[in-house]
Design goal:
Elements lengths: L1 E5 L4 H12 L3 E6 L8 E2 L5 H8 L4 E4 L13 H22 L3 E7 L16 E3 L10 H20 L3 E6 L10 H6 L2 H8 L7 H18 L1 E6 L10 H4 L3 H8 L3 H8 L9 E3 L2 H6 L8 H9 L7 H6 L17
Parallel strand pairs: 1-2, 1-4, 2-3, 4-5, 5-7, 6-9, 7-8
Helix pairs in contact: 1-7, 2-3, 3-4
């Protein structure tokens, strides 16, 4: 199968090129930045470039985007150009060339202000049914791109799957207080309980979506590590998260103490991946339990793929922890 991967010089794009290539697919990587995983260097805003690059493709995995860290260094028009116009270019050229499946990488940042409960309220239970309330231009343009995917599927019949991925980037946390108070690996392991996913599992979600797209037609799915929590835990999570975690994982404090780690005092939202596991047949592997098991044996809690891909940065302009070019 000939598969086009946009954003192939980035974190997820490289991961997908590695995995798909290892499975014997013909993979064409697209990115503005050259790398050994990118076969075609150019911008998805350039319609003629997109047309040439996707010609004859069987499927497109569209991961290229301006990210949340770019909000501080790029204009709103840049987000519109890349995240909306670039996506529309890919969708329309996918239809023209006869692509059989289109997978769009979106983000849980689309939920925006819906992620933050009112003071004193239980933690938010986030499923695909929660209405997005974008917080910034990044979230707004990703929502718009999702709507374009649905529109093109409905009008032109292109099978489109939208994956709203939670955090999988390896860079340090974007909150100064969190970076100051917790070791980075501690933060990321905590987040596997409710708002993070390993890049290995993001990659397998894309493959599952690719396989299921023709049968589904259009669907939106939340991609995050499987949470142990239920809706009955929400009030306690936003009041005393360590108590709730202790109930599910009695060994976590001992393993954390050996590394000098701590659990966050509160957890304000929980991402739920049930629909993706059920409808896509996706089986994520790297949850909080898996991380604890690896800690117990002295292993890195990340997948081998996450370790191999490593950190890349987002652009050459420093914006807090998101510094250095790829």
């Amino acid at each position: 199968m000939k598969i086009v991967v946009t954003g192939s010089s980035g974190h997820l794009g490289e991961a997908l090129v590695r995995v798909l290539g290892g499975q014997g697919h013909e993979v064409v990587g697209l990115d503005q930045l050259p790398s050994r995983f990118t076969a075609a260097v150019g911008s998805i805003v350039d319609r003629s470039f997109v047309r040439r690059a996707v010609r004859g493709a069987d499927a497109i995995l569209h991961t290229a985007t301006l990210h949340k860290p770019h909000v501080g260094s790029h204009q709103r028009q840049d987000f519109v150009d890349v995240n909306i116009t670039g996506t529309l270019n890919l969708l329309e050229e996918a239809v023209a060339t006869g692509v059989r499946a289109f997978v769009f990488t979106s983000t849980t940042s689309t939920f925006g202000r819906a992620l933050t409960p009112q003071p004193g309220a239980p933690a938010a239970w986030i499923t695909e049914d929660v209405r997005p309330v974008p917080r910034n231009i990044y979230g707004a343009t990703k929502v718009a791109a999702e709507e374009l995917c649905e529109l093109v599927q409905r009008d032109r019949g292109l099978p489109c799957i939208v994956l709203r991925t939670s955090r999988f980037f390896p860079e340090g946390d974007d909150r100064d207080d969190v970076r100051a108070e917790y070791p980075d690996a501690n933060v990321k392991t905590n987040e596997l309980l409710y708002r993070r996913v390993d890049i290995h599992d993001v990659a397998t979600a894309h493959l599952a979506a690719l396989n299921r797209a023709p049968a589904i037609g259009f669907g939106r799915y939340l991609i995050s590590a499987t949470t142990p929590f239920t809706e009955a835990d929400l009030a306690e999570l936003n009041n005393d998260a360590p108590m709730v975690v202790r109930r599910y994982f009695p060994d976590f404090e001992r393993l954390y103490a050996a590394k000098g780690w701590r659990m966050f005092p509160t957890i304000e939202r929980v991402y739920v991946n049930t629909k993706a596991r059920t409808e896509l047949g996706w089986t994520p592997e790297f949850d909080f339990r898996a991380a604890l098991n690896r800690l117990a044996t002295g292993e890195d809690s990340r997948s081998d793929l996450a370790i191999t891909v490593g950190a890349k940065g987002y652009h050459p302009i420093a914006t807090g922890p998101y510094s250095a070019g790829r």
